[in-house]
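Sequence in, structure out. Go.
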Amino acid sequence: MSDETAGLAAYLQEANEWDRDRIAQWQRSARHAWWVAVAAGACAFSCTLALLLLLPLKRVEPFLVRVDDTTGVVDVVPVYSGQLSLPDSVTRYFLSHYVQVCERFDYATAESDYEECGAFHTARRNQAWYAQWNRANPLSPLNVHRDGSEVSVQIESVSFFRRASGVSDLAQVRYLRIERAASGAQQQVTHWIATIQYAYTAPSQDPRVRSWNPLGFKVVEFTPEPEVLRELPADTARAGHPS
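Output:
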């Protein structure tokens, strides 16, 4: 073999080795790129999974701030979850307050009273409440009292009832409806009794609703009716009231 042929063979061999080195280098780079891509994908998946697991922990906790009118001291009212049993005194307050606000009528406070009563209603009760106040209803308070007459309420008593199953979710509220005509005529007082089915649910997340109803008290059914007062027989009345 001549020197020229040997040199050419050596050159080709060197070029072939150089190509193999470049191909091997490219394959190593490709493997590294795939490993990096797989690692990045696994990292992204782990981050997404962690966010999904932490998502239930991220929530907004509304709170009610109370200011003492006398001292000016500010404190935060404890949050009620709607799970604990409440004393009858608290339920008695809500029942009395509900009847006072929802059975009265004054044009100056009618809109506010309507919204406040809605804060104590279930969805079904709110539908009936809307139908009752709708101007298309001839018996709507907006139509009945458009002459400027007013109605105020005075609570007489609150009684609780326990079902045979042991559940206490019924009450009766006795109250007076005091109607005053716009002309300033003598007021008319009537006796009423309301049967109320109530429940406690989780408090609303709406700050405006919570300002009226922070404990999630709900009126499920509300049935008011005039109370018939029994009159004593004349002989009994005279015996009890000697002249």
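Check: Residues 236-243 have pLDDT under 50 and may be disordered. The domain at 82-226 is CATH 3.10.450.230 (Nuclear Transport Factor 2; Chain: A,).
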